[in-house]
């Protein structure tokens, strides 16, 4: 028999919490990814603010950690990131380690041994793409379907199937696991269609935690900065060239966050999650290919454009459709005049209205399932 050895860092020496009333949040909280960190933090702190103790269920896996580190230093494989960028990316990794260490977490347990997790009253699975069968290292993990956990109640909040399309469906084994949930909510249309087909129910559509719990995020500065924030890697050439033309025409600097991009005037690939939020808050505009790049632009009411990669297309389309911002997804046929208008135009009132309605809807769901 192979014994799974889990590298539990010293900061994981957490005093066990009482299961009485405790909420355990099950998500990708230890990923070296801005969106994963902030959705985890917003959800656990947002739930705790409702008056219930809440912790992140601290699953660990040496294989997953190795994959995270490999991705952090080589995000565009098979294309290699030049070694000159590694010191900045290393600072980013250390910043994530420190930030995650400060989050409220349960005692650590092996990813593939959910039975070793501390018991809690309620497990909330989500958000993020926790049910994505195509995720490069978290795919098809029974833990994220609640298997083996000791809890009185099992619910999901803003869960997603990521880039696994509804047309592929869910097989009988995973459907049986989903039937164990006492309540299900999702964050995008593709995931809604998946659940509706698999379980013959209509799941609640709720907001990503970063939009649902805005008080957790840093406040926006009183005035915007003089830069457009570029967030993404492997960006298509037409996209970065269009951003460069806009920046040159408007006298705006390009700041690249999280990943090095040759088109940028300033490289902030070393930014930790707190610096990322501050850079988003202060930007004049945002250009991104990431789901949470759009989420943060929406939260801080910054004009943005997004290029949807194949991996993130379903998520970005679902988000922008839900909030009336689909026109901000652009492609190689989008002209400079249209991009100039999008990056120079504040978010439409309809977008703010839909976010407000989403918060009401999401609060009602949480009131019902956590009562």
What do these coordinates show?
37% of the residues lie in helices and 13% in strands. It contains twelve helices and 13 strands. Mean pLDDT is 92; it is low at 1-18. With 371 residues, the chain is α/β, with parallel strands linked by helices. The strands form four sheets. The protein has a five-stranded parallel sheet with strand order 11-10-9-12-13, with helices on both faces. A four-stranded parallel sheet has the order 2-1-5-6, with helices on one face. Strands 3-4 form a two-stranded parallel ribbon. Strand 9, helix 7 and strand 10 form a beta-alpha-beta unit. The chain has helices spanning 34-48, 62-73, 86-101, 172-178, 189-199, 209-212, 237-250, 273-282, 291-299, 313-322, 336-344, 349-369; strands at 23-26, 54-56, 59-60, 109-110, 120-125, 151-156, 185-186, 204-205, 227-231, 253-257, 266-268, 285-288, 304-306.
Task: Give a short account of the largest sheet.
Answer: 5 strands, parallel
Query: How many extended strands?
Result: 13
- Overall 3D shape: globular
For this structure, the quaternary state is single chain
Q: Rg from C-alpha positions? A: 20 Å
Query: What gap, in angstroms, lies between the N and C termini?
Result: 43 Å
The stretches of 5 or more residues where confidence is low (pLDDT under 50) are 1-18
User: How much β-strand is present in the residues?
Assistant: 5-15%
Count of DSSP-assigned helices: 12
Query: What class do helices, strands and sheet pairing give?
Result: alpha/beta
* Average residue pLDDT: 92
Order of helices and strands: EHEEHHEEEHEHEHEHEEHEHEHHH
- Helix content, binned percent: 25-40%
Q: What strand order characterises the main sheet?
A: 11-10-9-12-13
């Amino acid at each position: 028999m192979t014994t799974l050895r889990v590298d539990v860092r010293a900061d994981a020496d957490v005093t066990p919490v009482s299961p009485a009333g405790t909420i355990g949040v099950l998500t990708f909280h230890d990923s070296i990814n801005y969106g994963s960190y902030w959705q985890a933090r917003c959800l656990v702190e947002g739930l705790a603010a409702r008056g219930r103790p809440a912790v992140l269920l601290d699953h660990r896996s040496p294989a997953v950690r190795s994959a995270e580190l490999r991705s952090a230093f080589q995000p565009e494989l098979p294309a290699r990131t030049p070694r000159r960028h590694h010191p900045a990316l290393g600072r980013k990794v250390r910043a994530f380690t420190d930030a995650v260490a400060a989050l409220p977490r349960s005692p650590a347990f092996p990813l593939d041994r959910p039975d070793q997790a501390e018991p809690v009253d309620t497990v909330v699975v989500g958000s993020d793409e926790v049910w994505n069968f195509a995720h490069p290292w978290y795919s098809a993990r029974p833990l994220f379907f609640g298997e083996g956990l000791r809890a009185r109640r099992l619910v999901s909040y803003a869960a997603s199937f990521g880039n696994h399309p509804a047309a592929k469906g869910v097989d009988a084994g995973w459907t049986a696991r989903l039937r164990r949930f006492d309540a299900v909510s999702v964050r995008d249309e593709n995931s809604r269609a998946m659940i509706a087909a698999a379980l013959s129910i209509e799941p609640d559509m709720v907001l990503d935690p970063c939009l649902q719990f805005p008080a957790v995020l840093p406040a926006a500065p009183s005035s915007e900065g003089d830069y457009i924030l570029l967030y993404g890697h492997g960006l298509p050439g037409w996209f970065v060239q269009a951003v460069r033309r806009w920046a040159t025409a408007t006298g705006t600097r390009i700041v690249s966050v999280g990943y090095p991009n040759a088109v940028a005037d300033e490289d902030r690939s070393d930014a930790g999650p707190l610096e990322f939020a501050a850079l988003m808050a202060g930007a004049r505009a945002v250009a991104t290919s990431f789901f949470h790049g759009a989420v943060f632009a929406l939260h801080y009411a910054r004009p943005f454009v997004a290029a949807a990669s194949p991996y993130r297309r379903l998520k970005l389309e679902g988000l922008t459709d839900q909030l009336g911002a689909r026109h901000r997804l652009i492609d190689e046929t989008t002209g400079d005049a249209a991009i100039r208008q999008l990056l120079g135009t504040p978010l439409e009132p309809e977008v703010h209205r839909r976010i407000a309605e989403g918060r009401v809807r999401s609060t009602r769901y949480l009131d019902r399932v956590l009562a």
